[in-house]
Specification:
Elements: E1 4-10, E2 18-25, E3 55-57, H1 58-73, E4 78-82, H2 83-88, H3 94-98, E5 104-107, E6 111-114, E7 122-126, E8 129-130, E9 151-157, E10 171-177, E11 185-195, E12 202-204, H4 239-249, E13 265-267, E14 272-284, E15 289-315, E16 329-358, E17 362-382, E18 412-413, E19 420-421, E20 430-451, E21 458-478, E22 486-506, E23 513-533, E24 556-559, E25 564-582, E26 585-600, E27 615-619, E28 622-636, E29 641-652, H5 656-659, E30 663-666, E31 671-674, E32 678-684, E33 688-691, E34 704-718, E35 721-733, E36 736-740, E37 750-755, E38 760-772, H6 773-776, E39 785-799, H7 802-811, E40 821-822, E41 830-840, E42 845-854, E43 857-860, E44 869-871, E45 874-884, E46 891-898, E47 904-910, E48 917-919, E49 928-935, E50 939-947
Parallel strand pairs: 2-3, 7-10, 16-48, 31-37
Antiparallel strand pairs: 1-2, 4-9, 5-6, 7-8, 9-10, 11-14, 11-50, 12-13, 14-15, 15-16, 15-49, 16-17, 17-20, 18-19, 20-21, 21-22, 22-23, 23-24, 23-25, 25-26, 26-28, 27-32, 28-29, 29-34, 30-31, 32-33, 34-35, 35-38, 36-37, 38-39, 39-40, 39-41, 41-42, 42-45, 43-44, 44-47, 45-46, 46-50, 47-49
Length: 948
């Protein structure tokens, strides 16, 4: 047929006859379109059914089949979530979307935990090339920075093949950027919404501005130079000094960095906002050449507020003293008031994509992706303790009160004996914490695919990525510090380069192939942390003014001496055989060789912990080569049944944080952390070296090794239906774990990282299904209704290391007859999703009801500063409705209500196998005690999309 677009009719006995419109035919070529026909209802004869009753476009038909076809034909286990499902679940970002994939849960609301293995064991990719993490504390990429509006889907591969990174023990999460459409697309979307919690009681600061809606508030909060406007020192007992200080702080030019900008204020929360734009088109350069362009912009902002009921663990002595956890007796003390948290999150992202296609043999692409996310957090603890999790010193700060009766709460008060805030002494106290976290990424991606007329059996693929990541925490202000209030500034920058090249040779008509490839990933990270703490804890202190109430020079400067720099270089080469001896059998296997070189330099001290200043006595660098085998077998039992077997060996490398040769104060936990780069010790005059780890066997981290096995049965009864059942097992050798250090400071707990000499064992079961009820019951009247879901059960444990057991017994945390096993961090025992989807094509309506359940998971293990802490199991329910507007072609409206049951989120401590006693407020023994509980509120949104 001549080139052009046609309507193709499909006719087959026993199936509904169908039309596929807008199908492109290329002149002089054989066109193949593998379209799956819907089965004909049993009560309908072939003669009476007319073609026009089932008509779809070619694009719709491809979307209908592509997802399940890719899963069925993949060489390993593959889970796909498409842009259509992003919309169906009203997922605003990738973190919100990925929790619907089988076996995936979230840690801290943004880090993917795949099959119970946390961020260390998974790899995030962007269009098939590794994406670095900007987070100073984690190995994983925070997925909440990526709006779903600039992606066409997510592909999650859970079984390893030689072409995948060696660290992909849990899985590879491949984020697919928007692709070119065969026709021009111009689409706008706007939306708004609110959360039922975030009304008049929302907490924020006076620093917030319109820039926060675009995630760009860091420049307004930098404290590096803000202290320079106060000369000092000043004496609070000298009225002339007081007058001079106040005149400087209240100067109209400089007061915008004064104390009023630190204290949380209550406001009515702004409405959520959302805007997106998409343009895509293809231009014919010549008869053999085309140029495609994709432009996309996405912006969103939301305000949230939670009011938490908080309990505090204390020693059961009647004194209410803070505990040093060990073999002891503890009881719960309820606060009179609550912890309140207000957040404001702004995001903006942009995508530019260009694709050049020459003669359909050579394709070259370029994508530029920019994202920025900024989150302001304001925390207010009323009436009493500084934190409430146990193990934290109480800190008296100040009231929310207008004590000097000037009509302004928490402003400067120069009455009485000094300069301070509105403040009343007594038991009514408040703990404050404010923070701003800004994450920025620029990614430049080049890729190409090449085939050759004279070498049709050969395909070459290449990709290159350059990424710039930055995480800024310009001023964390905290009044809870055990040695007085403090401020912290952290900056992490990372430049990364990734290169991939592969060649695939097709050997026979059954698609047997050999593939070889090379890759290189390198990154350089710079980290700076500056800290200041107060010399004085009250405004009447006779020492020079050092109170936390002002930005001024009498804060003590602390932190890392200069910049700390880390470098990581990963080189890999692989060979893979994709062997198909028959039409029903496929064997994929091979080897991957990876060379790892990782280092980190820098030095500093932690004055909050008695000037804890460890030194790197002897370095143990990571310079290692690993041979990583894998094999997978796929058996097509029938046209609808696929049986898969897989075995692989993988690795897990230490993160930058785990190797840092200097201590830092973690502002979230008030704990000191120091990495394990070798023999770390603190030189004490007249004493010698006090080692961080006494046992030399644990000095210096090694790469952990894993063994992975899977078996899975998949059934594809129709193009809209899918069932799967699988089991998996993993063994983690020498897992990297966080433990309390031997070389303790007397002031704050010090933690470091070791390789546990024991292996962690994991076993899991996965069930997955998706079914159109019309196909299930052979009833056309139910074609509009589909159900689906997934269920994952995970059981995992690890024996405590000898170092952990020895230290625990020395410190009296546990006795020798307590259990030596504990669960893995961030590993829920159950993950489940369900959805019910109703689609009414005739009137352009769609309704989706979905449920997500995540079981208990361990977030903190027993130490001298903390008990075992779990996040309690939680179930959330969402409802999404969309409607095409019939009188305006291209216009649709979407309504969403998320978390509609508004369940209680909670954290708890459990007795477990630890030798402790837990009591409620009445003194009754309990197996578990709630530490905090709160509701997130119901989020309502409405959006309108117009497509030209």
């Amino acid at each position: 047929a001549p080139a052009g677009e046609y309507t193709v009719s499909f006719v087959k006995t026993g199936y509904i006859e169908a039309n596929v419109t807008d199908y492109a035919i290329v002149g002089g070529e054989v066109s193949v379109f593998p379209f799956g026909l819907p089965p004909r209802p049993a009560d309908m004869s072939d003669e009476v059914y007319e073609l026009q009753d089932f008509t779809v476009t070619a694009e719709e038909a491809n979307q209908l089949m592509m997802q399940l076809d890719l899963q069925k034909l993949s060489i390993g286990q593959l889970d796909i979530m498409s842009a259509e499902e992003f919309s169906k679940f009203a997922a605003s970002d990738i973190a919100d979307a990925i929790k619907n994939i089988t076996g995936v849960s979230l840690s801290d609301g943004k880090y993917a935990v795949v099959r119970g293995l946390n961020d260390r064991y998974s790899v995030t990719r962007l269009n098939g090339i590794n994406l670095p993490s900007p987070d100073p504390d984690r190995a994983a990429v925070p997925l909440d920075v990526f709006p779903t509006g600039i992606f066409s889907g997510i592909e999650t591969r859970k079984t390893n093949t030689p072409d995948m990174p060696g660290e992909a023990s849990g899985g590879v999460i491949d984020l697919k950027l928007l692709k070119l459409s065969q026709e021009r697309i111009l689409k706008f979307s706007v939306g708004t919404g609110f959360n039922t919690n975030s009304q008049d009681d929302w907490l924020t600061t006076e620093r917030s501005s319109s820039a926060y809606f675009f995630g760009s508030g860091a420049d307004d909060r930098d404290f590096a130079s803000s202290g320079d406007f106060v000369a000092g020192p000043y004496d609070v007992t000298n009225q002339d000094d007081i007058d001079e200080f106040v005149s400087v702080v209240q100067d109209p030019i400089t007061f915008d960095t004064g104390i009023s900008k630190l204290v949380p204020v209550r406001k009515a929360a702004p409405f959520d906002t959302k805007f997106s734009f998409l343009y895509s088109d293809i231009f014919e350069v010549s008869s053999k050449q085309s140029l495609g362009i994709v432009l996309a912009v996405d912006q969103s902002a939301k305000a949230r507020y939670t009011k938490q009921d908080v309990n505090r663990i204390s020693e059961n002595t009647g004194s209410g003293a803070d505990p040093v956890f060990g073999v002891g007796d503890y009881m719960v003390n309820s606060w009179d008031e609550t912890r309140q948290i207000g957040t404001f999150e702004g995001k903006v992202s942009g995508l530019v994509g260009v694709t050049y296609d020459y003669d359909e043999l050579h394709t070259i692409g370029f994508n530029f992706l920019a994202t920025r996310t900024g989150i302001e957090t304001s925390i207010l603890n009323e009436s009493g303790s500084a934190w409430g999790d146990g193990g934290q010193n109480t800190t008296t700060t100040f009231d929310e009160a207008d004590v000097n009766n000037d009509g302004v709460v928490n402003d400067l008060d120069v009455s009485g004996n000094g300069v301070g805030l509105d403040q009343a002494s007594g038991s009514g106290t408040a703990y404050l914490r404010t923070n701003y976290n800004q994450r920025t990424m620029f990614a430049y991606i080049f890729n190409g695919e090449h085939t050759f007329e004279d070498l049709e059996w050969l395909t070459l693929n290449w990709a290159a990525l350059m990424a710039e990541n930055e995480q800024l925490e310009p001023d964390t202000f905290d009044t809870r510090g055990p040695f007085g209030p403090y401020r912290i500034s952290r900056e992490t920058t990372q430049d990364s380069i990734g290169l991939n090249f592969s060649a695939r040779a097709q050997l026979d008509e059954r698609s047997t192939a050999i593939e070889v490839g090379v890759s290189r990933d390198e990154s350089e990270r710079e980290f700076v942390q500056k800290q200041k703490r107060s010399e004085a804890t009250t405004r009447t202190d006779s020492t020079p003014i050092g109170t936390f109430l002002y930005y001024e020079r009498n804060f003590i400067d602390e932190g890392i001496a200069g910049e700390a720099t880390g470098e990581r270089e990963i080189d890999a080469i692989y060979g893979m055989l994709d062997y198909k001896p028959t039409d029903w059998l496929q064997v994929v296997g091979g080897f991957r060789v990876e060379t790892s070189v990782i280092s980190y330099d820098g030095f500093g001290s932690a004055p909050q912990a008695g000037n804890y200043t460890p030194e790197l006595v002897e370095v143990s660098p990571i310079d290692q080569r690993d041979v990583i085998p894998s094999i997978g077998v796929n058996i097509d039992l029938t046209d609808e049944l696929v049986l898969r077997f897989a075995y692989s060996e993988t690795i897990a490398r230490p993160t930058y944080r785990e190797l840092q040769p200097f201590p830092i104060l973690n502002p979230l936990t008030n704990e000191v952390e120091v990495g394990n780069s070798g023999y770390m010790g603190q030189v004490a005059p007249g004493v010698g070296i006090n080692p961080v780890l006494r046992d030399p066997a644990y000095r210096g981290l090694q790469i952990a090794e894993l063994k992975n096995a899977d078996i899975r049965l998949e059934w594809y009864p129709s193009e809209e239906s899918f069932y799967a059942f699988g089991v998996f097992a993993k063994e983690v050798g020498n897992p990297i774990e966080r433990i309390e250090a031997f070389g303790q400071t007397a002031d704050l707990p010090v933690f470091t990282y070791i390789n546990n000499e024991n292996s962690a064992d994991m076993f899991g079961v996965e069930i997955e299904w998706q079914q159109n009820l019309g196909r299930l019951f052979d009833a056309e009247s139910l074609d509009w209704l589909s159900v689906g879901g997934n269920f994952t059960f995970i059981e995992a444990s690890v024996e405590r290391s000898a170092a952990e057991l020895e230290y625990a017994e020395i410190e009296g945390i546990r006795t020798s007859d307590a259990s030596d096993e504990r669960p893995l961090y961030d590993q829920p025992d159950i993950i489940a999703n369900l959805f019910l989807n109703a689609r009414f094509e005739e009137i352009g309506s769609e309704l989706t009801l979905s449920m997500n359940h995540t079981g208990d998971r361990l977030t903190s293990a027993l130490s001298t500063s903390s008990q075992d802490i779990y996040e309690d199991a939680i179930t959330t329910v969402n409802l999404v409705y969309s409607q095409d507007i019939p009188w305006v072609d291209g216009l649709s409206i979407k309504l969403a209500a998320k978390n509609i049951t508004d369940p209680v989120f909670s954290r708890k401590t459990t007795k477990g196998d630890n030798d402790i006693l837990l009591r409620d407020e009445l003194g009754n023994l309990q197996d578990e005690i709630s530490l905090e509980s709160y509701r997130k509120g119901i989020s309502h949104s409405i959006s309108a999309t117009y497509e030209f």
